[in-house]
Write a structure and sequence with these properties.
The chain is an all-alpha fold. Helices cover about 75% and strands about 0% of the residues. The protein is built from 15 helices and no strands. Helix 4 packs antiparallel against helix 5, helix 7 packs across helix 8 and helix 8 packs antiparallel against helix 10.
Length: about 280
């Protein structure tokens, strides 16, 4: 009996990846910029699911949104070390799960965007290249893992809009059409499943590519509404929808979206509160 209990303990202590209900609740708080609430949930998750590698993904999301919005160089200098620590930790994991390299790629891409924000172009280029290689490899190993399309669609869509010499340096191949087809496939899947983990984020990426890259403005606005997303509780969704309305010349609708945003006292970003 003692041996059995010990064996069960070893099984529970092995690293695993699970995007369960508690993880989703934390993720939802993050993308709604309720950072203090998300950090509280993450602390509890680290006690109850300490071997769940999805928590590393959540940690990086928090760093990404915090740094992207506050633009604090001091915080950037302090948090940048976490990128290597997380990647090194994941590199040491031997787990046959498509989420493993997907999480690594997401971490690298999020830091690439932050690096660009702080004019660290060389670091950003290296991370984009590494993320691209991870995702392409993951797609070959797990062709039915649709989440690969989440980040690949952005890389492929944007590859066409940057100079050829930049594409050559970062090593990303692709086209706007390729990126659009990738995110459209994932968006169709997310639309049919109200409980899909990345539903809100996928809808935002899809409509962004439609509006800003494909120049299909009316279609993008229709698709945004098709998902029935609640922009009144999400500063990011409200900002995206208001920006699209403004760019489409629909000023009244843009102001209405921002006025409907319910300010949440748990997110610390005054920049969004002033919208």
């Amino acid at each position: 009996m003692a041996c059995f209990c010990m064996h069960m303990s070893e099984i529970r202590s092995s690293p695993y990846i699970q995007y369960n209900q508690e993880v989703h609740a934390c993720y939802e708080s993050i993308i709604r910029l309720q950072i203090e609430d998300a950090q509280g949930k993450l602390i509890k998750l680290k006690m109850s699911q300490k071997e769940n590698l999805a928590l590393i993904h959540l940690e990086n999301y928090i760093d990404f949104f915090y740094l992207f919005i506050t633009e604090s160089r001091k915080e950037y200098n302090q948090r940048i070390r976490s990128k290597k620590e997380r990647i090194d930790l994941l590199d040491d994991i031997r787990l046959k799960d498509p989420h493993l390299d997907f999480i690594k790629a997401e971490i690298l891409l999020q830091w690439a965007l932050i690096d660009l924000k702080f004019d660290e172009k060389l670091a950003a280029g290296k991370d984009i290249y590494s993320a691209y290689k991870l995702l392409e490899g993951n797609k070959k190993k797990y062709p039915n893992f649709l989440e690969n399309n989440k980040s690949l669609s952005i890389l492929h869509a944007l590859a066409e809009s940057v100079p050829k010499w930049v594409r050559k340096i970062i090593g990303v191949k692709g086209s706007l059409i390729t990126g659009y087809e990738e995110i459209e496939r994932l968006a169709d899947f997310a639309y049919k499943d109200d409980n899909y983990f990345y539903r809100e984020e996928i809808a935002a990426i899809y409509t962004y590519i439609l509006f800003y890259q494909m120049n299909k403005r009316e279609v993008a606005l229709l698709q945004f509404d098709r998902f029935h997303l609640d922009h009144t509780r999400s500063p990011l969704l409200a900002f995206l929808k208001a920006s699209m309305y403004l760019r489409a010349g629909k000023n009244d609708q843009s102001l209405q979206v921002l006025s409907e945003l319910k300010q949440n006292s748990t997110h610390p970003f005054k920049r969004f509160r002033s919208c």
